[in-house]
Amino acid sequence: MQESESLENTEYAATVRAWLDENLTGEFAALRGKGGPGSEHEFFEQRLAWDRHLAEAGWTCIGWPSEYGGRGATMEERVTFHTEYAKADAPARVNHLGEELLGPTLIAFGTEEQKKRFLPGIRNVTELWAQGYSEPGAGSDLANVSTTARLEDGKWIINGQKVWTSLAHVAQWAFVIARTEPGSTRHKGLSFLLVPLDQPGVTVRPIQQLTGTSEFNEVFFDDAVTDANLVVGEPGDGWKVAMGLLTFERGVSTLGQQIGFARELDGVVDLARASGSLDDPNIREKIARARVGLRVMRAHALRTLGDADPGQASVAKLLWANWHRDLGVLAMEAQGAASLIGPDHDHAGAPSNITDPEHLELAEWQRLFLFTRADTIYGGSNEVQRNVIAERVLGLPREARA
Q1: Does the keyword Chaperone apply (predicted)?
Q2: 43: domain range?
């Protein structure tokens, strides 16, 4: 797909802009710029209400086929929507995992019964989803999953632990990769299960981060159950389904993400100007490199839209994750010594106590710096992405594994 001004200057774009202008008002006006990675705690209930408001107007799941409740939007229309949404500084969506990941996966791999049961709840934002992939011994190496599930009396009985499970504490369901063939290793014997989280066999434990927030969780399965027919694809075929889902993860919504990145970069420039560090040639060079990096990200995203090649997805992840991490560092450098100082008081009016995470107050740019330390780890670490490119694209010898 070629980059074109027509993507941003069409009648469709005008329709999206007009709707956002009319609706990001009143009770929703305060949500502009709220939420997103590292800030998912911000106005969660209000953002959930906003998502449902979008759904009522038909602005969720726009790329889904109309028979599943979507608009059947073209690729250009989807790019335009995400671009205009980001330009409006509209709040981060709470239903990304359902709408952008599980929904398309069910449409591609699920049974008609599964589609009828789950797609309406995703589209209407009445059921939220979490992603049960990573484990303590299988963070970015999904093939090392040890969570097990056995079929017994029409139920899958699940035992194991997942970690870094985003938003599991507010989700009703999780899609879980589990090993269903005893004795299997690596990619074989895995299944993709749909598991209810509100049951006695599931424990969700929030993980407090450096930022003081807890959007990630540990999830423990102790004889948790789900129905036998809630396996997506064939039992033992979970690796194929999981890899299919990951291709959707790096979809058109990343173009909206880049608008947010550009806004953050503009904020860093303002920081540098206010602190006087913009006069430093080294800072100016880093800002220029950051702007070039944004253009590279956009060009790559537009060129590879709809490309199922896992190498392209890995390149995209490497581009944005490293860029964003470096922006966090640049924000600290632009502020200079002031970046080391927290706000003077906490919410209760007492002096800040940076040794107590429950009362830790961070400035916006400090939170950015701390959270972006994770960008090159979650969603597949840099090392894993480079292995994918080396082994599956360039055909280099596989890394030795124990």
Answers
A1: no
A2: 5-94
